[in-house]
């Protein structure tokens, strides 16, 4: 007799989760799944065996969730994202399903420490920064608030890269996260789809000469194979699916060529397929990198659309109801080619006319924009796009004709404005604008903070907004409190439970109950003790990895995020140099001990970002070794920033650096994580900082610098950074020291061009905001001196930022964009 995994006969086993039963199951898992005896089992074996025991319980709920969605004919959400920065899954899943404590006891019975083996789980290298981490939070929250959902992405073999430093320079190495396999995933060979590239398009006409359809005949084909990972919601009531695509050759080996002696040629197709899913964000500074990136984006979009359409047809037998049963969400422009791909499938494969297909497409898709930087709104050279995707190029032109006809009919756009609306940038370098394609093909376009959404209407999508005024809306980002409080900060979680009970575990807004305790001296002392323990943990990590000793009693000032000029790590470093000068020049002053931590990766082809990393490490080398500083200032750049490192750094932060040039950060989620863990924000009025300020109150955040409107005004009116620098002795001295080689004796000119860029242009307003930033930092020092005041402000941050939960964000998406009940 064959038993289904959710058979009633299995329930007594799967539902019995006491430590002794779990210990027995772990041993069985070790023996029968891994083929190991306890005497030879490695820590990795214990990790895998433990995960598979809990995974059994998850599978049961996973199947029930999937069956329920099918039987109830629930509308499903399909979230397409090139990144899912999910990090380690073990603690998250164990906790969400309510088995963390029992598994810890079970392993202890076997002489194994859960915390030790948990550290062996690699971070899934599926993302880079905030966009990918947001996607991961959203997947967990969709399961938590009971939204049936699939996430779709790429199963990268190496992901972005593992970052190491060589003499302070970033070195990119392969991230080998799959070396020991992935016990969470399931290969689904039965869900495999051919994806084509290149080739020709043929027209099929009827006997009377009418065009009936187009047939794309690709010259290249690869196979997209699905790998599924269960995503467990809080309390484990729903388990959704993260489906990642891996590329395989349609013909793994050309046997005829191999037998003829052309062994390399025989494997060429296999190698071409495997390259597709090796690395996230191949360098696009050259044409080969651009082509690979476009291939990746089409590969996963096409496979995902085929999967979605087939699932809908198998249940409903027709496609006219697709928008009623499927909400497909584009996480930024990376999957925007899916708009043209759905049109192709509807028209060419299923015989639906253009107008009907376009209506179905627009009602099915929604698009989240994550940037106001024009260069980050992807565009592809028309020749490249047409060579790789000839049928899609035809469809893009057809869509563009429809959009431009609507724009002309509106009679409110001049020629230049219509040119900005066009899906094709006309010029010497004709390009397909993926942001415009995503906008035109979606019924909803949302920003990720109130400021970002307003600026979107005024800048990058101003003309499209005038043409389609009802489409842009705001959905401020959020973070999952399970990962970013309960799991990463057990001390603060337990303190809150002791103080206000457990209800906030299910509704993070109830942390507001901590607000009155900011005035309670005894609670402040307990809160400070928790922070001290978290700082000690980070100090130990820094000592082990870098050999740098840091004092946990110092103010921990942390900036961790992708390295980019608009995020202004450079401003932070220049201020550190100025502070270094002041400490040495005025030793009589009462300086507060401070450790400035940095973490983040620079894109391999982004020269200035990599130079900023080198500068940070050069400045650290000089300052950390100078006895005149007396340990009052240290700089620490921790390599290979990832989710697991963030889980240690975020709870340890006293000060959260959110200092982007106003008007350039869409939202940020690091700002929310830090505040939830009791750090005070120093930041510009940019992205979600604006809303954090509104929530925590003006007295509990340190705001400085130009506003977005002031930045735009300065740029428009001929901003002269040189005049500002010459009027600021501290800034001038710091820039001169960097440019003249004080921190780069081996190469005195290393930073000359970087600093000259501030004098000559300063697009990111480093000089304009420097004096305000230094004043804000001295204000931070004055608050820090009064420990009760600092702790009270930190506690109020924790108590007042529950609104920035991804549960709230997802409920808004569900009710206002996806039309899914929550």
UniProtKB/TrEMBL annotation:
Keywords: Allosteric enzyme, Carbohydrate metabolism, Cytoplasm, Glycosyltransferase, Pyridoxal phosphate, Transferase. SUPFAM superfamilies: UDP-Glycosyltransferase/glycogen phosphorylase (SSF53756). One of its GO terms (biological process) is glycogen catabolic process. It is an enzyme of class 2 (transferase). The modification N6-(pyridoxal phosphate)lysine is found at residue 673. Its main location: cytoplasm. It comes from Neomesorhizobium albiziae. GO terms for molecular function: glycogen phosphorylase activity; pyridoxal phosphate binding. Allosteric enzyme that catalyzes the rate-limiting step in glycogen catabolism, the phosphorolytic cleavage of glycogen to produce glucose-1-phosphate, and plays a central role in maintaining cellular and organismal glucose homeostasis. It catalyses: [(1->4)-alpha-D-glucosyl](n) + phosphate = [(1->4)-alpha-D-glucosyl](n-1) + alpha-D-glucose 1-phosphate. Its cofactor is pyridoxal 5'-phosphate. This is Alpha-1,4 glucan phosphorylase. Gene3D superfamilies: Glycogen Phosphorylase B (3.40.50.2000). It comes from the Bacteria. PROSITE patterns: PHOSPHORYLASE. It is found in: Cytoplasm. Pfam families: Phosphorylase (PF00343).
């Amino acid at each position: 007799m064959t038993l289904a995994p959710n058979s009633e006969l299995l329930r007594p086993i799967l539902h019995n989760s006491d430590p002794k039963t779990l210990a027995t199951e772990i041993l069985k898992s070790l023996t029968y799944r891994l083929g190991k005896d306890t005497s030879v089992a490695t820590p990795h074996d214990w990790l895998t065996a433990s995960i598979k025991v809990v995974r059994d319980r998850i599978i049961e709920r996973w199947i029930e969730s999937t069956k329920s969605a099918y039987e109830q004919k629930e509308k499903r959400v399909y979230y397409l994202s090139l990144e899912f920065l999910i990090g380690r899954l073990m603690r998250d899943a164990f906790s969400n399903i309510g088995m963390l404590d029992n598994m810890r006891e079970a392993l202890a019975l076997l002489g194994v420490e859960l915390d030790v083996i948990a550290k062996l789980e690699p971070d899934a290298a599926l993302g880079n920064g905030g966009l990918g981490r947001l996607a991961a939070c959203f997947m967990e929250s969709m399961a938590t608030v009971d939204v049936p959902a699939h996430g779709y992405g790429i199963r990268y073999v190496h992901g972005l890269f593992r970052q190491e430093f060589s003499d302070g320079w970033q070195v990119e190495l392969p991230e080998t996260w799959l070396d020991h396999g992935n016990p969470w995933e399931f290969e689904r060979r039965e869900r495999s789809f051919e994806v084509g590239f290149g080739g020709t398009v043929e027209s099929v006409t009827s006997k009377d000469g009418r065009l009936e359809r187009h047939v794309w005949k690709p010259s290249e084909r690869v196979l997209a194979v699905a790998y599924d990972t269960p995503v467990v919601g809080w309390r484990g009531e729903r388990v959704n699916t993260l489906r990642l695509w891996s590329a395989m050759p349609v013909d793994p080996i050309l046997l005829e060529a191999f037998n003829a002696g052309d062994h390399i040629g025989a494997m060429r197709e296999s190698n071409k397929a495997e390259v597709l899913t090796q690395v996230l964000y191949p360098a696009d500074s050259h044409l080969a990198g651009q082509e690979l990136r476009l291939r990746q984006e089409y590969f996963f979009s096409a496979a995902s659309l085929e999967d979605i359409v087939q699932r809908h047809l198998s249940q409903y037998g027709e496609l006219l109801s697709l928008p009623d049963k499927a909400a497909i969400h584009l996480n930024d422009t990376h999957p925007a080619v899916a708009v043209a791909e759905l049109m192709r499938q509807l028209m060419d494969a299923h015989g639906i006319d253009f107008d009907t297909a376009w209506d179905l497409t627009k009602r099915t898709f929604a698009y989240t924009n994550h940037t106001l930087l024009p260069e980050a709104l992807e565009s592809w050279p028309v020749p490249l796009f047409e060579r790789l995707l000839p049928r899609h190029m035809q469809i893009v032109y057809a869509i563009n004709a429809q959009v431009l006809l609507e724009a002309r009919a509106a009679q409110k756009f001049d020629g230049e404005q219509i040119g900005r609306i066009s899906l094709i940038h006309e010029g010497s370098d004709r390009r397909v604008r993926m942001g415009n394609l995503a906008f035109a093909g979606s019924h909803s376009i949302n920003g990720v903070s109130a400021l970002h959404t307003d600026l979107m209407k005024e800048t990058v999508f101003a003309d499209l907004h005038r043409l389609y005024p009802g489409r842009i809306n705001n959905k401020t980002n959020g973070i999952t409190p399970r990962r970013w409080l309960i799991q990463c900060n057990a001390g603060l979680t337990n303190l809150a439970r002791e103080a206000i009970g457990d209800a906030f575990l299910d509704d993070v807004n109830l942390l507001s109950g901590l607000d009155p305790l900011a005035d309670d001296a005894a609670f402040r002392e307990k809160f400070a003790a928790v922070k001290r323990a978290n700082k000690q943990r980070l100090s130990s990590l820094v000592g082990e990895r870098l050999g740098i000793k840091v004092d946990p009693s110092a103010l921990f000032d942390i900036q961790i995020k992708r390295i980019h000029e608009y995020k202004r790590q450079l401003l932070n470093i220049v201020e550190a140099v100025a502070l270094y000068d002041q400490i040495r020049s005025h030793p009589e002053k009462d300086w507060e001990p401070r450790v400035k931590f940095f973490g983040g990766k620079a894109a391999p082809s982004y020269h200035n970002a990599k130079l900023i990393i080198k500068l940070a490490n050069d400045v650290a080398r000089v300052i950390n070794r100078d006895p005149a500083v007396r340990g009052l200032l240290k700089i620490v750049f921790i390599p290979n920033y990832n989710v697991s490192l963030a889980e240690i750094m975020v709870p340890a932060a006293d000060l959260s650096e959110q200092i982007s040039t106003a008007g350039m950060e869409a939202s940020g989620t690091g700002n929310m994580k830090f505040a939830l863990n009791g750090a005070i924000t120093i930041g510009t009025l940019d992205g979600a900082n604006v809303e954090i300020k509104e929530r925590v109150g003006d007295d509990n955040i340190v705001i400085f610098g130009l506003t977005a409107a002031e930045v735009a005004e300065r740029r428009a009116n001929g901003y002269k950074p040189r005049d500002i620098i010459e009027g600021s002795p501290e800034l001038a001295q710091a820039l001169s020291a960097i440019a003249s080689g004080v921190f780069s004796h081996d190469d005195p000119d290393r930073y000359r061009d970087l600093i000259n860029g501030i004098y000559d242009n300063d697009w990111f307003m480093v000089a304009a905001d420097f004096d305000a930033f230094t004043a804000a930092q001295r204000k931070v020092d004055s608050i820090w001196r009064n420990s009760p005041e600092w702790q009270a402000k930190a506690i109020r941050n924790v108590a007042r930022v529950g609104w920035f939960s991804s549960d709230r964000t997802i409920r808004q998406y569900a009710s206002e964009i996806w039309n899914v009940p929550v």
